[in-house]
Input
Amino acid sequence: MKKIVSVQDVSCYGKCSLTVALPVVSAMGVETAIIPTAVLSTHTQFSRFTFRDLTDEIEPIATHWKEEKLHFDALYTGYLGSSRQISLMRDFFRDFGEGTLKFVDPAMGDGGKLYVGFTPAFAHEMATLCAVADVIVPNVTEAAFMLDEPYLDDGEYDEAYIQNLLRKLTALGAKIAILTGVTFDGKKIGAYGLDSESGEFFSYFNDRVPVKFHGTGDVFSSACVGALVNGLSLADSIALAADFTRESIVKTLADPDGASWYGVNFEEAIPMLLDRLKK
Ligand code: PXL
Output
């Protein structure tokens, strides 16, 4: 059985990070080990939340795993709680990353703003982890902060702006950079990437559901990692992850309790994900 490790926080309530990665990647038939980076009472979109940093646990866990000679088919990092955790992840990539997919979702902001608790210095640190990754999936906000480029909102940027961000992201060292949530006309939304080895840009767009939902990045990343580890091509993995994300949004819209800042109903989209994965 394929096996990955996902390194992100546990937000005990609110659908994001490990409470998304675990069910999604596991449902795709891939064993999902975890290293929790922090325990929060809720995700940070709530007006208040508790936060227990778990940085001190990361090194002992990694040391034990080295003794056990563990091997993973992918290393998948998401929300990291501090600059020190980023540096520990660089060590983790060095120790466990040989011949393994290193997938970084630099989850730290959206809509032109960093999430509560993050600074531009943290974003620069995150760029150093992206530098040693095979695939990175920032949104435009995260890319702009990592690169110190101006942030342009949906509807303000053009293809040249996106391609410039992608060139600079791969210049950091990332092999493949994929910007998520890209929309040029507000009607279509999707992923736009650059493969630094072939030098080729690629993209995948869907009809946009005209609502912004929190937590879609984690849904996209988890499905993309699951698809890649299942052996799908990069193009097919991105298409599947984007379609699954859209389906999760559609399911949320149909839910009278669905709130845009909370998270999406990815659970109800899992049957579609698995149907497509089998094809
Ligand atoms: O979805 C990314 C994410 C992960 N973890 C925590 C968050 C967020 C987004 O707000 O607050 C704790």
Observations:
- DSSP finds nine helices and eleven strands in the chain.
- The first strand starts at residue 3 and ends at 13.
- Residues 9, 11, 16-17, 40, 43-45, 79, 107, 115, 215, 217-218 surround PXL (CB under 6 Å).
- The CA atoms of residues 192 and 203 lie 4 Å apart.
